[in-house]
Design goal:
By secondary structure, this protein is α/β, with parallel strands linked by helices. It is built from 13 helices and 8 strands. Strands 2-5-4-3-1-6-7-8 form an 8-stranded mixed β-sheet, sandwiched between helices. Helix 3 (about 85-100) packs across helix 6 (about 125-140).
Length: about 325
């Protein structure tokens, strides 16, 4: 028979050992969880199930690594797009920076609206006015000159609400998702309506996506020799708009494979999601980020002037796409400071 003091000591040792094992198990789980910023909801389960399926060799859902292509929208999918697209904020700052050399802008819309900080008047100029701003501020220079201007701006600009650099307002859960897919043999591409040369300078550092895997809207460029140096000069003309139906066209042109996974957040991504999921014979996955968290980020969908999510939200139910509820599905929104 075990004496009472020895029995108590034995019980304490057992309890301590079990507690230690529990802590170790919890730590190991935390280290092996590929998506720690995602709550254990249906969205996370759907992602993991998809990845497990396409990577399980000798099963019907298996997809060879060379075919594991995933495409991501940028604005509203990988980083914040409110209260306006980041590249639009850049264009507005460029108008103000260049106004001294363009005195005519003081009396010419849409430039006058920008200089007067009259966002209502600017909105009234519509897409035509916004395009005019972009062409005026993004052209008339070489590609290297533009990339330096964009890089310098992104390094110093701050978001008006969060007072953080825009590159810190990327979504931590989506950074984890990008890394998780790459760890499982996926090649990840950004397919954005934003300007490709605005995104490329910082995409690799922020997202781990190299420049050659960034697809976006472009303006026309032409080759020129300047003082014995070869350059590409940016012209004030639209070349290609990589939005809506343009996205599948660009994917086919620049990737050459139909993706098996697509991630978006707005009606501008509808055709990309359809192109990815509604064709081909392999396992496919579509996901929409639904902005539902006004406290930690923003809440918007069908009526938003930026990132409107209406038709694509309805299509998600019909096509079995996963819809991420940011408020319910994400433990955190942005990376910790």
């Amino acid at each position: 028979m075990i004496a009472l003091p020895n029995l108590l000591k034995f019980s304490r040792d057992i309890a301590l050992g079990m507690a230690t094992l529990l802590l170790v198990a919890t730590s190991v789980f935390a280290q092996t969880d590929p998506l720690p910023s995602w709550n254990n909801t249906g969205a996370k389960a759907a992602i993991v199930a998809f990845v497990d399926r396409v990577t399980a060799e000798n099963t019907p859902g298996y997809v060879p690594e060379v075919e594991r292509i995933a495409v991501f929208d940028n604005d509203g999918t990988l980083w914040t797009e409110q209260p306006m697209y980041v590249q639009l904020a850049f264009a507005l700052d460029r108008v103000k920076a260049e106004a001294a050399t363009h005195p005519e802008w003081k009396d010419t819309q849409p430039f006058k609206a920008v200089l007067d900080n009259d966002m209502k008047a600017l909105a009234a100029t519509g897409e035509k006015g916004l395009l005019e701003l972009v062409l005026a501020t993004h052209s008339g220079m070489t590609t290297e000159e533009f990339q330096k201007i964009a890089s310098d701006w992104i390094a110093t600009a701050r978001h008006p609400r969060f007072n953080r650099p825009y590159t810190e307002l990327v979504y931590q859960p989506m950074l984890e998702l990008l890394a998780y897919l790459r760890e499982n043999g996926f090649k990840t591409f950004i397919v954005s309506g934003g300007g490709v040369e605005f995104i490329r300078p910082w995409a690799e550092q922020v997202y781990g996506v190299p420049p050659e895997q960034v697809i976006g809207s472009t303006i026309k460029t032409q080759f020129e020799m300047r003082e014995g140096v070869s350059t590409l000069f940016r012209l004030p003309q639209v070349d290609f708009i990589d939005d809506k139906a343009g996205k599948p066209v660009a994917i086919n042109q620049f990737i050459g494979r139909r993706p098996i996974a697509a991630f978006g957040n707005s009606d501008g991504d509808l055709e990309m999601l359809q192109w990815t999921t509604l064709g081909g014979t392999t396992t496919r996955f579509g996901l929409i980020v639904h902005h539902t968290d006004a406290e930690r980020e923003y809440a918007y969908d069908r009526d938003s002037p930026f990132g409107r999510l209406d038709k694509a939200l309805d299509a998600a139910a019909d096509n079995n796409w996963t819809v991420v509820d940011m408020k319910a599905d994400w433990k955190q929104i942005f990376p910790a400071k």
